[in-house]
Write a structure and sequence with these properties.
Elements (H helix, E strand, L loop, with lengths): L2 H26 L7 H21 L3 H25 L14 H29 L1 H11 L7
Length: 146
């Protein structure tokens, strides 16, 4: 099986979470604070879209790290600003019609971002000998007593 298909399935899951979020945020009338929506769109979705485009162009040297880095950044941002930090867009602060859908969509965004980041780092590990050596050096350090 083409490894690009594996990464694409993760990306599609991530994109579906974003579509769910867009619909649920509209229904729930969520008020995002300055820069939240822009960050989610640019880093959380445009970055992985560019990464998957590079992966399909077989440019794994830039596509896999971009996919991993942007999806992981988007995941961190979503967890912090929409679950931890107190602001009007926090899932606990949104009430009324669509609040449940908004919370479910935000969970889908976080899980989709994690899956996409995992797929990106998996592809990066498979395709980059330097990255693989760095990871293997940390996970399985050589015995210094020899």
């Amino acid at each position: 099986m083409d490894q690009r298909l594996i990464v694409t399935v993760a990306y599609i899951f991530h994109a579906v979470g974003g579509a769910m979020l867009a619909i649920a945020a509209t229904v729930a009338s969520v008020e995002f604070t300055d820069g939240q929506l822009e960050f989610m769109i640019l880093v959380g979705y445009l970055g992985p879209t560019a990464g998957i485009g590079l992966v399909w162009a077989k440019n794994y040297a830039y596509g896999a790290p971009l996919l991993f880095g942007s999806a992981a950044s988007g995941c961190w941002f979503a967890v912090y600003f929409f679950f931890v930090n107190e602001n009007p867009a926090n899932v606990a602060a949104v009430t009324g019609d669509g609040a449940g859908a908004y919370q479910s969509a935000m969970i889908a965004v976080v899980v989709g971002s994690l899956v996409t980041a995992g797929a990106g780092v998996w592809l990066w590990y498979r395709e980059s000998a330097a990255f693989r050596d760095a990871v293997d050096g940390v996970v399985r350090p050589s015995d210094s007593s020899e």
